[in-house]
What does this fold into?
Amino acid sequence: MAKKSDKALQDLAKELKKLRKENEKLAKAVGTLREDQAEYHRRVLDLIEERLAAPDSATDDTEDHDHDENGGFVTAETADGADGDVPEASAEAQQDQGEEPEVTDAAKRRAKELGVDPTTVEGTGSGGRVLVKDVEAAAGQ
It folds into this structure.
């Protein structure tokens, strides 16, 4: 009976040794996963901070002007209760004079993300202004 007990004890010791090795491997894997998770968390926080800081850091020379609900300038036409759109003749004149259409800051950022040149996009906003939806449409999204 002593031999059976010794054999069982040796088998248990071997099994315990295997389990400890496996436990060490798993602990190492968990540690690696936690490090990766912490790195990804830092990256997400950096991206969030970057996105939140972008509008604040950009200087906008239009800050002192009144804007309508679509982000367009309030003109005499819009102040008088008109629909706020620049007449087609004005939009066409702007294009005919070779001026680049006005592009919203958000549209510029989205164009950069999508690799689209915003100056080549036809704007649907007030006076041909290029909006985010115009950039996305040009990119095929």
In short: The two ends are 78 Å apart (CA to CA). Confidence is low (pLDDT under 50) at residues 57-62. Helices lie at 2-57, 76-79, 88-96, 105-114, 132-138. The longest helix spans residues 2-57.
